[in-house]
Amino acid sequence: MTSLAGPARTAHAGRHPLVPFPVVDELARHCFRAEEPESIHIEIRLPGRPDPDRLRQALTEALHRHPRALIRQAPGPWYRRRYFWQLAPAPDPDVALVTVPAPEPEALERARERCLASAPPLSAAPPIRVELVADPGRPGGTALFATVNHTALDAPAGLRVLATAAELYGGRADAPAAPPVRPAPVPRGGAAPRPSPWVPPARVARGTPSGRPGDALLVADLAVPRRPPGAAYTVNDQLLVATALTIAHWNQGRGAPPRPTRITMPVDDRPRGADMPIGNGTRLVEVPFTPAELAAGERAAAEGDADAVGELLRRTGDRTRALKATTGPQLGYGVALLTAPVLPVAWRAAVTRGVRRAAAPWTSTALLSNLGRTPYTLDFGDAGRADAVWFSAPARLPRGLSVTAASTAGRLHLAIRWSRALLSERDGTELLALFERYLAATERAPADDGGATEGGSR
Predict the structure, then answer these.
(1) Which residue intervals of the chain bear CATH 3.30.559.30?
(2) What is d(CA 216, CA 116) in angstroms, rounded to the nearest whole number?
(3) Fold (topology level) of 12-170
(4) Which tens digit of pLDDT belongs to each residue from 411-422?
(5) What pLDDT, on a 0 to 100 scale, did the predictor assign at position 190?
């Protein structure tokens, strides 16, 4: 993984140190398209209402404690070989770090639309904006919306900054919960067949798009899916299986031929404490499913065949454990080569965009990102503790679909985000209903007598 712990001083612009763009940041910068904003949406529900001025002060101090988040892109000539982040001494004066929009009907939906419509510009520090929106369905309650530019930070890094702001606002320390410890499972004989990596994976079949640019989003508050004692798979594996079966069902209903499905899954090995490296710190792996596995899984879910669903879950658990144990560059050796600082960034950007277009047929089917149990209490003092946390990642084409999840206060908070060039709001509602159906089917799977994992959702 590319190291992000780093305000290492490699150059200076005036008196502000510069940090070279890591590989993930540079790739996102090369592939930016105005019609597909690279925005992360984070939504935190609170029972009370934080004071905007105190929250602004707390967030400013949190940014100083995590200086890698207090950045802007440094200007430079077209022939430069690197992009650089400039570590700013304070938020730029013209940045409205915390805003309170006027109350309006469907305030939460409008706030989500704003999160998805544009990302904070990289030219101003920091690449984070926060809105405090009154929750119409909860007297006195508030939804805190954070919009983060994904070129600069990922969702776990953004949540870490907000957790520090909550500590400073509420005056209570918030040590992150330790991740669950899972004993190693007993090896099972016979590896499951996997699709060839050279076969282009399935695409999410086009629905009835409205033609509007950008992304759309639906959120859901669900029960955390149950697993039997001794299950050899995690909630994350249940989410993967539900995502794959949802897409298979959707595609079959639209006449798409059966093809292997590949789900991109971020793996994050960073600590969650105050020393967490800030930036884009996850590496991406792809979890494959064969057409035969998915066809059998659909039949099993429809017929209530818990044993067959359990077998698919156990195979998925085997695969995700193997993928998490691998090491290597965040986005693979090919991307590391593309971003090597040999040619000017303008030339590398053109090459990267061309390679991305050529490789589009081999891009994975969808993205599933699961934060697991939210590791922070997010206690905002007089405004109360967070009892729901949603986040969502961009749904760029050719994938066009991202599924994200986190569990807070014993509930699973799910977001389905899609490209409007691919699907409509009605299509998104249908996909969410299918996902809930297949996630429920994973709860009926029996335990694996030889298996061995207990613990959290990751």
Answers:
(1) 215-371+395-442
(2) 7
(3) Chloramphenicol Acetyltransferase (3.30.559)
(4) 999 999 999 999
(5) 52
Supply φ then ψ for residue 197, to 5 degrees.
Answer: -70, -15
d(CA 27, CA 32): 9
Q: Tokens for 64, please give them.
A: 């100083």
What distances in angstroms separate CA 395 from CA 41, 290, 402, 427, 441, one per listed residue?
A: 12, 23, 5, 15, 26
What would the pLDDT profile of 213-262 be if each residue is shown by its tens digit? 899 999 999 999 998 888 889 999 999 999 999 999 999 999 999 999 99
pLDDT value, residue 342: 75
The segments of the chain whose pLDDT lies below 70 read 1-15, 178-193, 328-337, 447-458
> For the CA atoms of the chain, what is the radius of gyration?
22
Q: How far is CA 380 from the centre of its chain?
A: 24
Structurally, what CATH architecture does the domain formed by 215-371+395-442 represent? 2-Layer Sandwich (3.30)
Per-residue pLDDT, 176: 80
Tokens 């969410």, residue located: 432
Longest dimension (CA), the chain: 67
- The DSSP bridge partners found for residue 132 are 144
Q: What angle do CA 138, 113, 43 make, to 5 degrees?
A: 50
Measured at the CA of 444, the angle between CA 439 and CA 446, to 5 degrees, comes to 130
Dihedral sign for Cα 302, 444, 442, 427, please. Answer: positive
Q: Where in the chain is the domain with CATH 3.30.559.10?
A: 12-170
